[in-house]
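User: Show me a protein chain along with its predicted structure.
Assistant: Here is one chain, sequence first, then structure tokens.
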Amino acid sequence: MTELVIQSTTLPEAAITAFGNELGRSPDATRGHSARWRKVAATPELKALAESHQVDIAFVPENRRRADFSLLVMDMDSTLITIECIDEIADRIGVKPQVSAITEAAMRGELDFAGALRKRVALLEGLEESALEAVYEERLRLSPGAEELIRFAQESGWKTLLISGGFTYFTHRLQARLGLDHAMANTLETQAGRLTGRVLGDIVDADRKATELRALAARLGVEPSRAIAIGDGANDLKMMGASGMGIAYRAKPVVRQQAMHALNFSGLDGVLNLFTQD
């Protein structure tokens, strides 16, 4: 048996009532915008009920504790932050529709990620490097609940890794801003203050994300199963599969289907409700 958790950014009372009627009892606990029932078996009816009320549903092992984990690994674009940085950079040079279409296909797993990234970056050739700062200052926003999740991780003693198929310009600034332990991404080549349309070095793709998760776990002396990995795109699936808890955040369908848990209506702080004990 497991514990059932339902949650959303604003959990409707009607949803709590509907689940209570289905289970024949009131929730055993409520916290913030979540409700929890103990000793519940997963059924298609409960999953359908969550979908109809547009709330997130999770079946959580009864003994899952925050102390069981040592590492939080997060994707950046459309996960830790609300935007796809490359799409917003492209908007500065008038090629956002072309770049966004490639981004969407890559995140759905329809394109080779490395090739798709090089194709998108090539469209940015000649753009002034100052456009990156404008995107960071004017358009980059943290996802709801991001700061709460990171604070929870730090209070729990977890190490944090931000790993992105995006760019170091943004990951390094977010690392400093949020106090993250590690950050890794791709480096845009520049010459004379302008983007060349090329990426330096190897691309951070799906395989690299999984490899870096395992490598950091090894350096910490823990198993990868003690990692939590959060992402939204197909290039996050291997990383999530290597972890002990893979969480799809506002993700593409292919990612939601394969993740252990999915947060479609909650903020990133919804992760806090996926533990049964402190």
